[in-house]
Amino acid sequence: MAQVTVTLDANLAIDAMMLSGTKSPQDAVELVLRDYLARGRRTETRTGEAADGHRLTADRPTAQEG
To answer: Superkingdom, according to UniProt (predicted)?
Structure first.
């Protein structure tokens, strides 16, 4: 697998390490990124994708007044 080197501000790296509970900045960034991507996939699964727009109706039914 290819690797990428990313330069981060020290405070940002420390925040990522504290949030992820790791002692390595590299591991922290990897965990945060993996969680971000997984959360995006879960959201798409629950709400659908932009291509699913055909399922939405433009006209909403009017509420009946009693």
So the answer is: Bacteria
